[in-house]
Amino acid sequence: MLRQVAISCFIAVLALPAVARTRPHFGGTLRVEVQGDAFESSNGLILGLLMDGLTRIGIDGNPQPALAVRWTSENNDHRWQFWLRPGVQFRNGWPLTSEAVAASLTQSCPTNCPWKAVHALGTSLVFTSDFPVPSLPSMLAENQFLIQLTDAGDGKHPPCCVGTGPFQLAQGLPLSLVANENYWGGRPFVDKVEIVTHRSVRDQWLDLSVGRADLVEVPAEELRQAQQQHLTVVSSPPVTLLALAVSDSSLLSNPNLRSAIALAVDRSALSNVIFQKQGEVTASMLPGALTGYSFLFPTDRDLNKAHEVRGGLNTPPLTLAAENNPIMQLAAQRLALNLHEAGFNVQVANAATVLHKDLALLQLTLASSQPQAALESMLRSVGVVTPVVENTPAGLYKTEREFLGTHTLIPLLYLPRAFAISGRVRDLRLSPDGSPILAGVSLEDAQ
Q1: Which of 285-299, 350-364, 375-389 has the lowest mean pLDDT?
Q2: How far apart, in Å, are the Cα atoms of 308 and each of 216, 259, 263, 269, 377?
């Protein structure tokens, strides 16, 4: 018996170093590099580190308490009330109040909101709407509705992004965020996050290989290359919708022209050639895994039908705007060629500089893994406030079909988000929208 106890104790002692190696360490600087603007509201990394929402989406896709600890709905989801977490402060030490939250939401969403009005009531927020909003807790977790201080006193506006998040924006360059020691959700493991923006993917990977970066981007079209180079990659399911927005005014006010454009696009070529078969071809706004009905929207190109629907109607040259990065410009050029074969003359332009656009190549983020909230958010991102009253596959499909029937938005591909990490990064997870959850990351060599 004593021999067995001694052996067990010896094994436990041997296991201690292994446990210590896997336990998260506090400290260190996480070095991140990205292609675009880290402050971008949809896919940017910074906003969710500096600010919190009333709710947040858990790994299971359901809304969880954040700045709000609980909520209730009344009047068939026409009225919602959210109670604030007590004792939370903004970065400058000001207390989080219901008045400050209402002011932030009013500033971030002046029009086309998923509510008609929001106002403070004691330590709570009350949202009212003319139509049912059953998915409001999920919507309030989106980046657009993160809470920041909007009044610094004496009528002055505070600097950017004074929030309640796990990190605080530091002064100077490189762009860096320092851990919020008093974060209500617990101090982050790393002391600092340094972010280098507008860095090409090639340079990001080079910096990762020589130890100058810890987390870099892996675009969908580069996933296969990353695997061949044996990078450690963390990837999401398809969460980014590549879609073609079509104006319904001026040159394209005729619905037959928009229908011809929808018939002329070649999704398979985009997926196979440009995105290296990493995308999920779709003509639906939501991915098939979320709804089960995406196959009901045909994805095949029909050039003959496009010519038939166009019926000889001619338009002056159309402008297709796309983000000024190589892959988006290449995809836009491919679409322009598709439309040229259908009788349209399309010129590709930089979305940041063009004043008028008839067509626009967009990347829309799947904000939730709950179908109703995801569809309403997707519609709102293109300026359509349409409540999904019936939260069933049939109801969701009907809403999609009616909107997509206008051919003002043509879904093309669903793409994953992915990141490569260095060997010292531990516990990186991705949120349901594919964003890295940096507040939970620790560094193996932190002291």
Answers
A1: 375-389
A2: 47, 10, 10, 22, 34
